[in-house]
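2024-03-11 09:14:02 INFO worker-7 job=invfold-0412 stage=load source=structure_tokens
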């Protein structure tokens, strides 16, 4: 996946987590905030070219290989 597409994918995942957290009134907010922090860090690292492979496990396992 190209770097721009990987960043777009990560931002879409982040939006989905924000929606899930806001729709759940008594859910596990701590897990959601940790996931958001992970997605924020990954987005920055992919943009900067520091990470070329990453794996997300929620909602389904996926491995992303970033190309330039």
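2024-03-11 09:14:09 INFO worker-7 stage=emit residues=68
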């Amino acid at each position: 996946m190209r770097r721009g597409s990987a960043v777009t994918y990560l931002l879409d995942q982040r939006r989905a987590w924000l929606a899930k957290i806001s729709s759940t009134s008594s859910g596990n907010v701590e897990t959601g905030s940790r996931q958001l922090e992970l997605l924020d860090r990954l987005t920055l690292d992919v943009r900067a070219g520091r990470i070329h492979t990453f794996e997300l496990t929620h909602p389904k396992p996926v491995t992303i290989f970033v190309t330039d």
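2024-03-11 09:14:09 INFO worker-7 stage=report msg="Strands lie at 53-56, 62-65."
2024-03-11 09:14:10 INFO worker-7 job finished
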